[in-house]
Specification:
Distance between the termini: 17 Å
Number of domains: 2
Radius of gyration: 22 Å
Largest sheet: 6 strands, mixed
Structural class: alpha+beta
Length: 307
């Protein structure tokens, strides 16, 4: 079987909405353009289920041509109960020569569907780029509030987190032990359309008081690291909710118009995260820069394919 589709980027929103509402099969071609050389993945939950990595764990892929068209060949024999979803990515840059490695970022995620629903009809996918601003971001104050909750959950003596360029640096103390770690955030590319950010805690360093062979009898580094990761992970649902509320507030009218005029739900996908400086304070010889985490995103139509 084949999954056939075309990926388009909307360039004139009012014209697209009016023409799509009048004729969903043929919106005005002046309102969009093809997204060429995009990577399209058909992720499946066979055999190990969906994964939280950039590329689905078990997937088939294709590249769009100059018209935005793609065809993904899927071997026959899969059980009809297997679920799948489409993930579209586009190239945002290339690593400098001599490598010339393309860097891709997500632009669209579909709702899951079963293999039994796949048919030969061309699935037209339209996306709208929406760059974020510092008013549509995560502030250091929000990170401080989340960190305070994590500290209470983990019963640590102290815990702080600061937004740096590209990551969140975390330090803490508990019973004489010093904790250091980096929290990396990236766009979520899985089929859970209510999640937008993936989190990864790395570079964990725990400095225990006294020789490790003595204190190790009472304190497990692995357990502290496990609880630290879990503490961060537990905060992500509330962080995701803040994202949904913020996007609905700032882009609600656009989303409402699309859903009303097209009778179809939209899907939201974060393309990338930026960490701009929003405030600079100088204290004598010291300069303190406060950053925010700003998501750039795409609104996609249709949310549900093969309907």
């Amino acid at each position: 079987m084949n999954v056939n589709g075309k990926l388009h980027e909307i360039t004139n929103i009012p014209l697209f909405i009016s023409s799509y509402s009048a004729n969903p099969a043929h919106p005005n071609p002046a309102s969009f353009k093809p997204m060429a050389e995009a990577q399209i993945y058909l992720g499946t939950d066979f055999p190990a289920g969906f994964t939280n990595s950039f590329i689905p764990g078990f997937s088939f892929q294709a590249k769009t041509d100059a018209t935005g068209a793609f065809t993904i060949f899927v071997p026959d024999g899969f059980p009809n109960t297997i679920k799948a979803f489409l993930l579209a990515t586009h190239m945002i840059m290339k690593v400098l020569p001599p490598l010339n490695v393309p860097i891709f970022a997500p632009v669209y995620r579909s709702e899951t569907f079963q293999f039994s629903q796949i048919n030969s009809k061309v699935q037209d996918i339209y996306v709208i780029r929406t760059d974020g601003t510092t008013q549509q971001s995560f502030s250091q104050a929000q990170i401080n509030e989340m960190t305070a909750n994590i500290r209470q959950q983990m019963h640590l003596d102290s815990l702080s987190a600061f937004i740096n360029d590209g990551l969140i640096g975390i330090t803490g103390q508990d019973q004489g032990a010093t904790l250091k770690a980096d929290l990396f955030l990236s766009p979520f590319t899985g089929p859970d359309l209510n999640s937008f950010i993936s989190e990864k805690v790395d570079n964990i360093d725990i400095d225990l008081p006294g020789p490790d062979f003595i204190v190790g009898l009472f304190v497990s580094k692995d357990e502290i690291a496990k609880q630290f990761r879990q503490g961060i992970h537990n905060m992500m649902p509330s962080l995701n909710k803040q994202i949904i509320d913020r996007v609905q507030k700032d882009f609600g009218m656009l989303i409402t118009q699309l859903e009303k005029n097209t009778n179809s739900k939209v899907t939201l996908t974060f393309e990338k995260l930026r960490f701009p400086v929003v405030e600079t304070k100088i204290f004598g010889p010291f300069t303190i820069k406060t950053r925010a985490i700003v998501p750039d995103l795409f609104v996609g139509l249709s949310r549900k394919l093969f309907s």
